[in-house]
Amino acid sequence: MTDYDAIDFFRDDALVTDPYPYFEHLRARCPVQREPHHDVVMVTGYDEAVRIYNDHETFSSCTSVTGPFPGFPVPLEGDDVSELIARHRDELPMSDQLPTLDPPVHTAHRALLMRLITPKRLKENEAAMWHIADGLLDSFLARGEGDFVRDLAAPFTMLVIADLLGVPEEDRAEFRARLQRPEANEPGIGSTGEETMEHTPLEFLYGRFTTYIEQRRSRPREDVLTGLAAATFPDGTRPEVADVVRVAANLFAAGQETTVRLLGSALRALAENPDLQRLLRAERRRIPLFIEESLRTESPIKGDFRLSRRATTVGGVELPAGTTVMLLNGAANRDPRQFDDPAVFDVERANARRHLAFGRGIHSCPGAPLARAEARVVIERLLDRTTDIRISERVHGPVDARRYDYVPTFILRGLTALHLEFDTVESEGR
Asked: In this predicted model, what pLDDT tens digit does every residue of 186-209 receive, in sequence order?
């Protein structure tokens, strides 16, 4: 019998591969439960998580990425710490990033982001998705086996987001080389180890997009970057170049990683279930439902933090002002009060899309429509061009005999390696 109370969720690798029994342990006690190691209130209940996500007046997102690490700059004392948060939030790590902003600043910056991923732009981008997927599949499938995450999912999502943001084609090879180096998958914030976050990828993106935006403001063209450079806040004011650059860089980095993790979990489910493959090959209309169930059973974003501004009560539990709360999306998506047989992968589940994989409320992931479209394109083209997909049982490289590998992090969750074998069919492309 596992002593879950003795396990430090934030530092122990024991829960990386399978955190779900731990989540069940917490929920069985209470859907809102304080863990003993870092004094974090863990929210495993669906209704309780939705309540917090939708209450930005009581809960601040200032620590959404870092949680209890490295701590708040000053003691959070009193019945209402809103003023302390406002005064010291700029001292927190990642304080200028979209996920950590609160209204009204967040509202204005999110509006800039939504200018980039309108339904019209996504529709225009879809033709590029099919072209990119087939180009990568030509070499990926030719070998009969390969690492799905490294050789297909990661380059595909990087090239799609580059196309969406209008990165010039002549620069995309450098983006791929700089952002998808082997060390890019090393743990950072959210790691179970003691490593510190690497800023190099974001610094590279900041530098490149600063150049792009400044060029388009001085010499407009008929392209996506010019539209981004000309975007205004909802009140009509023109943002600083740095504001636009942060939004673009955040979308580039976060959107790419989230979709890679979604694709990894979806392909693992397919590769382990031949009957499911046959069903989706025969009934393509079920692919969107399959994607939603993949998101529900294995949320790419495992958790999100909030800091209570004032004393409140959630799920019958009193939360003092200054409480660090972790919303465990992966646990909420398996809450039996919301989903029947929640541990079962059911492609016919009627309410699967109620999942919290992309959060909820004002901070719900704006890239969700893009992630769904990317996943659908890759899955459809893989099914079109193969007759069988399976996880390799062979030993590949220095990872011993493991068939797949999870990233060691308590915030993001997803496969970093998934070695597949496949039988292919002749394809006429698209």
From this structure: 444 444 444 444 445 678 899 999
